[in-house]
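Incident log, support desk, overnight shift.

02:14 A customer reports that sequence design results differ from what the structure should imply. Their input is reproduced verbatim below. On-call engineer (initials T.W.) acknowledged and began investigating.
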C-alpha cells in the first residue's frame, strides 16, 4: 500500500515555516501545510484517484539542532564543499532563471545547472510562447483550446490563471530585452500552431527558446545577488522528517569538472530541472534531460502525478530520409516545429498521399497526440520509417524568414525545404506529468517549489497544447516568488546543518580500481541503451496491458542486473558518479511512467492503450504516485541518505 512514512518527532532545520494550500478545484481537500499533509486527493478523495503503487521512496529524518548554531541573515558560500544561500534554484531554463531574477531582489540565490547555463530544454524550443495578444482572441478561447488538447483532464482554475497571466509575462520578457518577430504593421507577429483556434504564438523566427534564454541569462549573469554554478549535477535533495512532514533544506551536487561533492544549504529550493526525454532512444531533449528532478523529488517523498502522459512530438527530423546522412548519430533528435504545420505544412506518406484528414477533421492542425498516433499508424501499416512534411508550396521568402534554423539544418544534409518535403518521425518530447504543484508552485515537501517541465500543475492534462510549455514555466516561476520570499523571511538557517547528513562519496579509480570503473561505465552505457529500447518498444505511442507488464518486468530485471553488478564490485549506497546517477534517475522515471500507465484503464490524450481504447468519464481523474515503503525499493528509488532519527539525537 502506497503511503508516506513517519519516523517520529524530529525538529526540522528551520526555526519557522510558512505553509501553503493547494488550489481547490483540482485537489479538493489536498492541503499543503507546514504541520501536516493529510489528504492527498485531487478530485474527490484519494481512493477515487488512479494510484500507482509500484515505485517506492523513503526519506529519513534529521535530529534537533543546537540553538546556538542558528543565524538569521542572508548568507552566501562559506566554503568550497558547503555553500549557504537564501534560495537554491536547480535548473537554468526559463523557469529557473525567471524565478532567480525575482527572488534575488530579496536574498542571495544559487543557480545550479548540470551543463553550460544555456543547455536546457528552453534553448531547444523552436515554436514560441502562446498568449492572448490579439483583439480577436480571448482568454476563454485559449482556455478551451488548452482543455480540448488536454482531453479535459486539465485543472480549469490552473488553465484560467495561466491563460490570464500569460500576456503580462510576455510583456515582462520584452521589457527585459527579449526580441520577438513583428509583422509589417509593427505589431508582434503571431503564429498559429496545432490545436490553437487563433494566432497567438509569439516567436523569434524558429529559435524562440534560444532568444528567451539569451535575454534571461544575460540578466542573471549581471545580477550581483545570483551565483551560477555550472557543471554541477544535482544528486539528491536534502530533507528531514517531522512527523508526516518532509522538509527540504537544499541539495547535494557533484561538480562534474572537479569530481567533488558540493552541498547547498538553503531556506527555499526551486526545482526547475526539466524533463526526462532520454528514457527513450529518440528525443528532442538535450542530453541533460534524464529525469533528475522528478526522481529526486520522488525519492524525497514528493507527490508525483500523471507520468503516463509522455508527449511524442509528431515531427522530428528523420535522418534516414535525408539526402546526405549525418556522419555521426545525433545526441538528440532535431525538432521540426509545430509552426511548420501551423503555417500550412502538409503531411504525406512516402506515396505522397495526404493522410491526416482521414484521421481527424482538423487534419494537420489536430493536437500533437492525434498527429503522432496517426503518423505511427501510417508507419506501421505501410512498414515505412518516416513520413513527409511539405511546406514548399509556400513562398520561399516566407519559409526562410519563419524557419531559418530548420532550413539551415536541412540544407546541411542536402535538402532544400523551399523545394522538397522534410522527412519526419515522432520522438519523445515533453513530460506532461511530474511533481505535483499547487497554484504557487508549492509541493507537499515544505521548502520545495517546482516550475517548468518537472512540475505537474494541472495545465496540460493528458496532452500539452503547443507552445503552452514556455508559458507555464513563465507563469509559475513568477507565482512561486511571493510564497518563496515569505518562507525565506520567516526561516533561519543552521550553520552546522551541513554535517547532519553523511556526504556522498565520489567513485574513483583509486577507491574502486580502474578496471572496475571501466566495467561499470561500459555496463551502465549498455543498460541505458537497453532501457531506452524497452521504453520505446513497450511504452511508446500505442500501448497495451501485456506490453506494459512486459516493460515492468524487463525494467526490473535490467535494474537488478545493473545494481547487483555495481554493489558486487564495491559500490555502496552513498557512492556517486555522473553516469551511474543519471542511470539511477532514468530507471526511476521509467518505472514512474510504467506504473502510471498501468494504473490508467482508459485511453486519454497521450496515453493510448489497445485494451481500453476509449475515454471513460469515470476515469477523468489524475494519476497519483505516493511515497511508499522502502522495503522493496531499489537504489534508484531511495535517497542516498538513510539516517535514523535516534542516531542524531
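02:41 Re-run completed on a clean worker. Output:
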Amino acid at each position: 500500500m502506497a503511503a508516506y512514512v513517519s519516523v517520529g518527532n524530529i525538529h526540522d532545520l528551520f526555526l519557522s515555516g510558512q505553509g501553503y494550500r493547494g488550489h481547490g478545484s483540482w485537489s479538493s481537500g489536498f492541503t499543503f501545510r507546514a504541520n501536516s499533509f493529510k489528504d492527498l486527493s485531487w478530485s474527490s478523495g484519494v481512493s477515487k484517484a488512479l494510484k500507482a503503487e509500484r515505485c517506492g521512496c523513503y526519506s529519513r529524518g534529521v535530529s534537533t539542532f543546537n540553538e546556538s548554531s542558528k543565524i538569521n541573515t542572508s548568507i552566501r558560500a562559506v566554503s568550497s564543499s558547503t555553500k549557504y544561500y537564501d534560495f537554491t534554484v536547480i535548473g537554468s531554463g526559463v523557469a529557473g532563471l525567471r524565478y532567480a531574477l525575482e527572488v534575488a531582489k530579496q536574498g542571495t540565490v544559487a543557480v545550479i545547472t548540470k551543463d553550460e547555463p544555456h543547455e536546457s530544454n528552453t534553448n531547444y524550443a523552436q515554436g514560441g510562447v502562446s498568449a492572448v495578444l490579439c483583439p480577436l482572441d480571448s482568454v476563454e478561447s485559449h482556455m478551451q483550446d488548452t482543455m480540448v488538447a488536454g482531453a479535459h483532464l486539465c485543472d480549469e482554475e490552473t488553465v484560467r490563471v495561466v491563460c490570464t497571466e500569460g500576456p503580462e509575462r510576455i510583456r515582462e520578457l520584452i521589457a527585459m530585452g527579449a526580441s520577438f518577430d513583428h509583422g509589417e504593421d509593427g505589431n508582434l507577429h503571431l503564429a498559429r500552431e496545432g490545436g490553437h483556434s487563433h494566432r497567438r504564438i509569439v516567436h523569434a523566427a524558429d529559435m524562440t527558446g534560444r532568444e528567451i534564454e539569451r535575454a534571461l541569462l544575460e540578466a542573471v549573469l549581471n545580477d550581483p545577488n545570483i551565483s551560477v554554478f555550472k557543471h554541477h549535477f544535482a544528486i539528491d535533495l536534502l530533507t528531514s522528517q517531522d512527523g508526516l512532514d518532509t522538509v527540504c533544506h537544499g541539495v547535494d551536487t557533484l561538480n562534474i569538472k572537479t569530481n567533488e561533492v558540493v552541498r547547498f544549504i538553503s531556506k527555499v529550493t526551486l526545482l526547475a530541472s526539466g524533463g526526462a526525454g532520454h528514457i527513450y532512444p529518440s528525443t528532442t531533449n538535450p542530453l541533460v534531460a534524464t529525469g533528475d528532478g522528478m526522481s529526486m523529488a520522488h525519492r524525497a517523498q514528493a507527490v508525483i502525478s500523471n507520468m503516463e502522459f509522455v508527449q511524442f512530438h509528431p515531427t522530428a527530423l528523420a535522418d534516414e530520409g535525408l539526402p546526405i546522412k549525418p556522419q555521426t548519430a545525433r545526441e538528440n533528435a532535431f525538432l521540426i516545429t509545430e509552426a511548420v504545420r501551423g503555417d500550412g505544412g502538409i503531411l504525406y506518406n512516402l506515396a505522397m498521399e495526404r493522410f491526416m484528414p482521414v484521421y481527424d477533421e482538423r487534419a494537420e492542425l489536430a493536437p500533437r497526440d492525434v498527429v503522432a498516433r496517426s503518423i505511427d499508424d501510417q508507419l506501421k501499416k505501410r512498414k515505412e520509417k518516416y513520413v513527409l512534411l511539405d511546406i514548399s508550396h509556400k513562398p520561399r521568402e516566407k519559409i526562410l524568414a519563419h524557419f531559418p534554423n530548420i532550413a539551415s539544418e536541412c540544407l546541411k544534409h542536402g535538402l532544400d525545404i523551399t523545394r522538397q518535403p522534410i522527412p519526419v518521425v515522432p520522438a519523445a518530447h515533453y513530460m506532461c506529468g511530474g511533481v505535483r504543484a499547487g497554484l504557487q508552485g508549492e509541493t507537499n515537501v515544505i521548502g520545495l517549489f517546482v516550475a517548468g517541465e518537472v512540475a505537474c500543475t494541472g495545465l496540460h492534462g493528458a496532452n500539452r497544447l503547443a507552445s503552452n510549455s514556455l508559458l507555464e514555466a513563465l507563469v509559475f516561476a513568477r507565482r512561486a516568488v511571493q510564497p518563496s520570499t515569505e518562507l525565506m523571511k520567516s526561516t533561519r538557517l543552521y550553520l552546522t546543518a551541513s554535517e547532519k547528513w553523511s556526504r556522498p562519496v565520489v567513485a574513483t579509480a583509486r577507491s574502486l580500481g580502474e578496471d572496475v570503473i571501466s566495467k561499470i561505465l561500459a555496463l551502465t552505457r549498455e543498460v541505458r541503451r537497453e532501457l531506452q529500447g524497452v521504453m520505446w518498444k513497450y511504452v511508446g505511442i500505442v500501448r497495451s496491458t501485456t506490453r506494459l507488464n512486459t516493460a515492468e518486468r524487463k525494467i526490473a530485471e535490467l535494474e537488478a542486473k545493473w545494481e547487483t553488478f555495481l554493489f558486487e564490485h564495491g559500490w555502496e549506497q552513498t557512492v556517486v558518479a555522473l553516469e551511474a546517477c543519471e542511470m539511477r534517475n532514468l530507471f526511476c522515471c521509467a518505472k514512474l511512467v510504467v506504473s502510471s500507465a498501468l494504473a490508467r484503464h482508459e485511453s486519454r490524450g497521450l496515453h493510448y492503450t489497445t485494451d481500453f481504447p476509449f475515454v471513460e468519464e469515470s476515469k477523468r481523474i489524475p494519476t497519483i504516485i505516493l511515497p511508499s515503503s522502502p522495503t522493496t525499493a531499489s537504489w534508484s528509488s531511495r535517497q542516498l541518505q538513510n539516517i535514523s532519527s535516534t542516531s542524531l539525537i
